[in-house]
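so my prof wants the structure for this chain in the tokens format not the other one, which i didnt know existed until like an hour ago. anyway here's the sequence
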Amino acid sequence: MKTKVIIACALLAAAVYYSGTARTPDVPPPPAGPLNLGPLLQGDTAADDCCLIACMCTEIAEIIEWDGMQDTPLLTTGTALDAFRTRTRKFLCRGESIGDRQPAVRDAIAGYLDEKLGNSGGEISQDDRDEWVAAYRDIAESARHAIQ
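here's what i got, hopefully its the right format
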């Protein structure tokens, strides 16, 4: 009887130990930011597209921020910022359109930018510039999260 109790205790201890070390599959939580691109991605190029979006948006945010620290910034209007974004995309993607491959992602990003930044082409303040930087960092973070 004593042996059975010892075996039962050993089995119970093993069960408790292994139940504490069992892991569930890692599923990333939704991004903390206001944009969730993950569910919108489609096709074989989805991961590459998201990686490019993350890199491109990070670079756009950093350049807009850097430009604002200059004595004479070049990007001083909404029109100039939007033209810079378009040119950056054309240069980095060599004319290829991620939006054509990922229309739902394109539409979500466009809607987010319109909601967050509006569509005024006029002069921007430092606060406006900060909003542009934050918006592009939000997009980059969402894209990074989608490929984790």
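also thought this was worth mentioning. Residues 38-146 form one domain.
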